[in-house]
From TrEMBL:
Chief localization: nucleus
Family listed: Belongs to the SKP1 family.
GO biological process, one term: ubiquitin-dependent protein catabolic process
Pfam (any one): Skp1_POZ
SMART domains: Skp1 (SM00512)
GO cellular component, one term: nucleus
Domain of life, source organism: Eukaryota
Designated name of the protein: Elongin-C
The entry's keywords: Nucleus
Alphabetized SUPFAM superfamilies for the sequence: POZ domain
Length: 117
């Protein structure tokens, strides 16, 4: 079902370097679906994820963020939007439409508000 950027592998430095050097962060949905997103994209796209990954939180040590209130389909759309946002952040012209299915629109708005993205 979830086919967007989900086949990435977490890359950790075995030499004991900080988790800030980790390239990917794992996002876990309410149902337990795991998705990987580049750490720099998560930080650039979401104020909430940035705080979790750069602050004194467990997520900054584990590079895993669990979202018990966000469904897999909505979290997948959030990951798509984070990529869209970073890709078009410096665009000066008209942005391409970001498609959202009406049946997830409300839940997506709630998630976007929580994630500040």
């Amino acid at each position: 079902i979830y086919t967007y950027i989900l086949v990435a592998k977490m890359i950790k430095d075995e030499g004991g370097s900080s988790n800030e050097d980790c390239v990917y962060v794992k996002l876990v949905s309410a149902e337990g679906y795991e998705m990987f997103v580049q750490r720099d994209i998560a930080i650039a796209g979401s104020t909430t994820m940035k705080a979790m990954l750069e602050g004194q939180f467990r997520e900054s040590e584990d590079n895993v963020i669990r979202f018990p209130d966000i469904s897999g389909i909505v979290l997948e759309k959030v990951v798509q939007y984070l990529h869209y946002k970073v890709k078009h952040s410096k665009s000066s012209g008209r942005l391409p439409e970001f498609p959202i299915q009406p049946e997830i629109a409300l839940e997506l708005c709630v998630a976007a508000n929580y994630l500040q993205c």
